[in-house]
Amino acid sequence: MNLTRLDLNLVVALRALLEERNVTRAGQRVGLSQPAMSAALARLRRHFEDDLLSRVGGHYELTALGQVLLDRTSTAYDVLERLFASQADFDPTTENREFKLVASDYAVSVFGAELARVVHEEAPGIRLRFTQTPPTVVDDTATLLSRVDGLLMPHGVISDFPATDLYDDRWVFLVAQDHPSVEERLTRQDLARLPWVTYQRTYDAPAVRQLGLLGVEPHVEVSVDNFQLLPLLVAGTRRIALIQARLARLLAPIAAVRVVDPPYEAVPLQEAMWWHPVHTHDAAHIWLRETAARVGRRVAEAEGRGA
């Protein structure tokens, strides 16, 4: 495909047409007259050799190719928008913008809260928006990263994207304070016989894979998409849960649970911030990454001080 022959303004028109499925509304959305939008649709139809929108009764529906292009156009638009929003210089004390980060509730609790505090102090015009890690993060990482400023996730799940390390953590188990059969420590036999509460997303895959290598098949009784619910679902039951040590310390006061070490050498957890290569040389994003790395070091140092 020779991009020099394409009018990239057609990306804007294509997105509006596919999402609105109406020429008039699409034109109003992007500030074009109906004749101008009709002309853009005609050019797009010639390029793709497809109608894209087909009339069914009194309305338009997407063709099969139009349906395929719907998600791709949205992704392409987001990448182009971020590309042309890149800055050569960035002053955090005067800028006014929002950074969007994808993260689990664990990452927001342990790291995001401190990052937000530092940004509040140093860059009053900067806003942070955290959104939950989707289950499809491993299946289409490139698309996800193209739409956000960063993804907070441990090493060992995704690869082939730039990342900056933040802090390390380790896996521990939660059991009820009055658990009837677990005293000072768990055994591997306990892991196989006791019911589990698990975090249902894929991002703790390295720890789960390790259990499989040890021959442990967890008997999952409850699964949730929020790490902070684990203590509440363990307290007063025979269940056990695998959780990050830093989060376990934060949550210990909210439920009658206690922390015990794994009966094996658990795989370490190294949290990182991942980003799309389109951001690599952007001054604003460089500031965000450097700030995140500095906050990560602060989180690690607080651990060393016993905080």
Defining traits:
307 residues; alpha/beta; 5-stranded mixed β-sheet; 11 helices; single chain
Can you describe this structure?
With 307 residues, this protein is an alpha/beta fold. It has 11 helices and 12 strands. It has helices at 9-20, 23-30, 34-48, 64-84, 105-122, 141-146, 188-193, 205-213, 230-234, 245-251, 283-304; strands at 53-56, 59-62, 97-103, 126-132, 150-154, 163-169, 171-176, 195-199, 219-224, 240-244, 257-260, 269-274. The strands form 3 sheets. The protein has a 5-stranded mixed sheet. Helix 8 (205-213) links the parallel strand 8 (195-199) and strand 9 (219-224). Helix 2 packs across helix 3 (34-48) and helix 5 packs across helix 11 (283-304). The model has no long low-confidence stretch (mean pLDDT 89).
Task: Please summarize what this structure is.
With 307 residues, the protein is of the alpha/beta class.
Helices and strands in order, then pairings?
Layout: H1 9-20, H2 23-30, H3 34-48, E1 53-56, E2 59-62, H4 64-84, E3 97-103, H5 105-122, E4 126-132, H6 141-146, E5 150-154, E6 163-169, E7 171-176, H7 188-193, E8 195-199, H8 205-213, E9 219-224, H9 230-234, E10 240-244, H10 245-251, E11 257-260, E12 269-274, H11 283-304
Parallel strand pairs: 3-4, 3-5, 8-9, 8-10
Antiparallel strand pairs: 1-2, 5-12, 6-12, 7-10, 7-11
Helix pairs in contact: 1-2, 1-3, 1-4, 2-3, 5-11
